[in-house]
Write a structure and sequence with these properties.
The chain has nine helices and eight strands. It has about 210 residues and is α/β, with parallel strands linked by helices. The protein has a single domain, classed as Rossmann fold. The chain has a five-stranded parallel beta sheet, sandwiched between helices. A three-stranded antiparallel beta sheet has the order 3-4-5, with helices on one face. The structure holds cytidine-5'-diphosphate (CDP).
């Protein structure tokens, strides 16, 4: 694979979005939040009244829908940035993300996106190191204690975060798991900048070796 990708996976609140975004800025690379894509599809399903449990209908919706994550998350040209983190979406997104047809459509777009970036892309999600970019330049698995992850998630609360952890890790289609060759970074009690520095150090060693 010739595209340059730093792949970052980890559970909710482990720091993926903040760390990946800051890392992309520091490197001058593009950034892709794949969770925002699953959330955007969920928002559109709820708006259209499509049953999120209907595997075929959801697969069809995911195939047709136009999803953009930057500069703001939008679906079919409609800005949904503020809608993607509501409680209703938190509850439904794990069901949508467990649908293999939906995943197939999202993964295809994620690969296309990274393939079109001139320098490189920092991509974060749940299956980026294991399924989407198994040959990434660098693979990172972020973790943090459940207490701290729930604190970072604020309103969502520990019970919902824990429930998504279980759903995301036990589903059949591309469950969240640590790739055998991913470098693990525990962000409990660590600043974003500190985590970024550590990953930059790893990248330096990777590209030199
Ligand atoms: O920010 P947080 O980690 O809470 O969630 P997110 O990254 O916005 O992802 C929301 C949901 O999308 C997760 O709970 C997963 O169910 C799903 N997801 C996934 O299955 N695969 C990805 N590559 C990214 C997210």
């Amino acid at each position: 694979m010739s595209v340059r990708v730093i792949a970052i996976d980890g559970p909710a609140g482990s720091g993926k979005s903040s760390v990946a975004r800051a890392l992309a800025t520091a490197l001058g690379w593009s950034f892709l939040d794949t969770g925002a894509m699953y959330r955007a599809v969920t928002v559109e399903a709820l708006r259209q009244g499509v049953d999120v449990h209907d595997v075929t209908a959801m697969g069809e919706l995911a195939r047709e829908v136009d999803v953009t994550t930057l500069p703001r998350v939008s679906v079919n040209g409609r800005d949904v940035e503020d809608e993607i983190r509501t409680e209703t979406v938190n509850d439904a997104v794990s069901i949508v993300a467990a649908n293999a047809l939906v995943r197939h459509q999202m993964v295809r777009r994620q690969r296309e996106f990274a393939g079109a970036q001139p320098l490189g892309t920092v991509v974060e999600g749940r299956d980026i190191t294991t399924v989407v970019f198994p040959n990434a330049t660098l693979k990172v698995f972020l973790t943090a204690s459940l207490e701290e992850r729930a604190r970072r998630r604020g309103e969502e609360g520990e019970a919902s975060v824990a429930r998504r952890d279980v759903a995301d890790s036990t589903r059949e289609a591309s469950p969240l798991r640590q790739a055998h060759d991913a470098l693990v970074l525990d962000t409990t009690g660590r600043e974003v900048g500190d985590a970024v520095e550590e990953i930059m150090e790893w990248l330096k060693h990777k590209t030199l070796s």
